[in-house]
Amino acid sequence: MSDPKGHVEPGGPALVESIGPDLTLSKLSVGPMDNNAYLLSPTDGPVVLIDAAADPDRLRELIGDREVATIVTTHQHHDHIGALAELAVATGARLLAGTPDVEAIAEQTGVRPEGVWTGDTIGVGDSALQVIGIVGHTPGSITLAYEPGDDHPTQLFTGDSLFPGGPGKTSTPEDFRSLITELETRIFAVYPDSTVFRPGHGDDSTIGAERPQLEEWRARGW
Known about the structure:
Metallo-beta-lactamase, Chain A, 32% strand
């Protein structure tokens, strides 16, 4: 990887790197909350955008003249959907989000994504993203997993469920217990330490770098 931390400056250029044999990732920081938007570009075929969060003009510039197959929203919070309606019209892309968050997204944006959940896949070129429902930060938060099957590490796009240093914010102790359990069973118990995860804000990390902190996170609680 060109930058193990995947750092991008708010308002700055996108970080572009190869994450698989036929897939390029562009990471762009948008909006006042330093949201990460991720563009997945296969060698052939249309692209996939993860979180049309804000700054639609910058996102359109990032996309360029490429066809957008799908826009995936990781969860319902307003800072992750600020450009969704405009990009939906501009691109004609299929819209997807975690099923329990669809209604809230539709109410806020006026556009209704199709619902997806654990076990579903999202095509990107000849590859696929695996959908993993992670309940806690919101009822319908999803993580997307890309497993390139070569020397590149697995990639996880975790939205606001997992950051370097801990889980995302939750509203109640029950939500926290759900989130930490989901992360332990669906992420840390499944993916190797080499796995890179790309959160909804800020820098990237790896599962191996965060694994030693799991007990501390659970003890720290809500």
